[in-house]
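Name: Acetyl esterase/lipase
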Amino acid sequence: MTNFPEIPTELRELMAEIGPKWATDTKGHVRLMIDKFSEVLRHSPTEGVQVETGNSYGPHERQAFEVFHPASSDRVPRPGLIFVHGGAFTEGSRHRTEAIYANVLYYFARHGIVGINAGYRLAPEARYPEATRDIASVVQWMRTNAVRLNIDPNRIFLMGHSAGGAHVGSYAYDKRHQPAGGHGLAGVLIISGRVRADGRADNPNARRVAEYYGSDLSTYDDLSPVSHVDKNSPPTFIACSEFENPLIDVYCYELAHRLASAKGRAPPLVWLKGHNHTSIIGHFNTAEDTLGRACLQFISETRRA
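Structure predicted for Acetyl esterase/lipase:
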């Protein structure tokens, strides 16, 4: 029987303590949660998963990724999932630590899903829409290699956290960034995604938003993923936490509302009580499984039309 580490009582108490004041020091609180959850994840299971390294989709060092394969001889084609990390547009890495963000891909691979942990170029070196173009290249790579990866090309999903959710949303919803044949996705998972660009004073990362999207605020609405939702947008799963970086929960709910209005049906939406902007991703592959199971249900029920 596989044992999963519990989130320690001390860590839950710390989450409850800093949660209401999360916005007073988002960078420091993110770093603290990364450190704490990396320690927890040292005890998470990784058996039954084969990690394929050394893959790239472009010449830049960040245009690289790992593939997480379920260790099984079963040749029935599986769903494929591409995970896109966050970092406020200017920072971050697919290897934030040895455990984060690999924990997300281990979780899905253990449940029979072939996963990619994707890197992409950052601002200010790569400004809008270069990160989205990188994501488009990873999607194309997965589709091209579907047979080798044992993936059903009609069951490819994109999942993004924070700024990664912005890049995922730009690709999924804004047709300007899609190939002639369309997005090629079965569905999208937006986890605490900054799906609206803004320069508001209450956004502690407004400067970083400008480094990616530029300083002309009048363009931000058109550049925002949420502005391009329509009835043909791919099925979308949305999650955010109780204690978010300022405005991210607002924009996640705006995305849900716009999708519901466009499609005549509300998308699945999870609000994770007691969690924060970092723990919502850091707790994957621990004993707490509420969000993970909701993601798995969405994937199991969704296929490309």
